[in-house]
Amino acid sequence: MLFKKVFGALILILLLVVLGALIIGRQLGFSAPGPSPSPSPIASETPTPTPTPTPTPTPSLDPYADKPDIDISLWEYTLVNKDNLLASDYKPDMSAVLDGQYFDSRAADSLKEFIAAAKVEGLTVYITSSYRSYDTQEYLFNKKVNEYLSSEGSPEAATEKAKTIVAYPGTSEHQLGLACDIVDKYYEYMNESIENTPLAIWMAAHSAEYGFILRYPKNKTDVTGVMYEPWHFRYVGKEAAAYITQKGLTLEEFVALYK
User: Fold this and answer.
1) Is residue 202 in some structural domain?
2) pTM score > 0.85 for this model?
3) What secondary structure does DSSP assign to 19-31, as a single string?
4) How many CA atoms within 13 Å lie on the side-chain side of 144?
5) For the chain, where are the E strands, in sequence order?
């Protein structure tokens, strides 16, 4: 009985203590801790877009993109070969140049300057041929055909053989009046060995300065259809001559760049 009284008294005291604590807490303004407030979201900074770099132009793969800006239809670029024939009555206005030879009047002064410059270097210059008429070319061609008749066995074969040596009538640049054969006056051979003469070496190196090109260069027979002729120079004007020489082109290849 005594135990129950003691236990009851303890419960009562405990309740009074809890009640007192609650009363004191309210008076002091304390409250049970609530949930921690969520932090305010920080506005993310919009990234500044990276400017797209301007692409570097890709270099042109065309090795002839720098070709001269010219009108390929002008007279000085006229292409004469087996596929581009001159009419039998074609004859330009001509002027006398040297050694009884004649040249297209529009380019005669350039040829004179070319030859004069060679002479200043102490070289002996002789023009073996410049302008030739259609009739003269026909005579020379037929003569060569007759030379080959016995060895080739037929007129057809002899004609084809002759075409590799002498231009067929209408296909010769000599009729155009813009080509000439220049050799050392004292060199007796008219063959490829001419390339080793001081005159031929100088002419090949300086021809472009006067508007001329070596028309039928070595290792280009498959393009020109004509054997190597280190004596045959053709007028095309200074701009074209410089480009053709620099690029190692034939006139056929140069004209094709504008097609």
Assistant:
1) yes
2) no
3) HHHHHHHHHTT--
4) 18
5) 94-96, 102-104, 125-129, 179-184, 212-216, 229-235
Rounded Cα distance, 18 and 16, in Å: 6
Q: What is the CATH number of the domain that holds 197?
A: 3.30.1380.10
Query: Which residue among the candidates 229, 239, 252, 253 is catalytic per the annotation?
Result: 229
What tens digit of pLDDT does each residue of 217-257 get? 999 999 999 999 999 999 999 999 999 999 999 999 999 99
Side-chain half-sphere CA neighbours of 180 within 13 A: 30
SS3 state at 174: helix
The answer for residues whose C-beta is within 8 angstroms of residue 165's C-beta and 6 or more apart is: 144, 227
Q: 181-215: per-residue pLDDT in tens?
A: 999 999 988 899 999 999 999 999 999 999 999 99
- Is 138 among the catalytic positions? no
Phi, psi of 84 (to 5 degrees): -135, 90
How many domains does the chain fold into?
1
- Number of residues that make up the chain: 259
Residue 160: CB atoms within 10 A of its CB come to 13
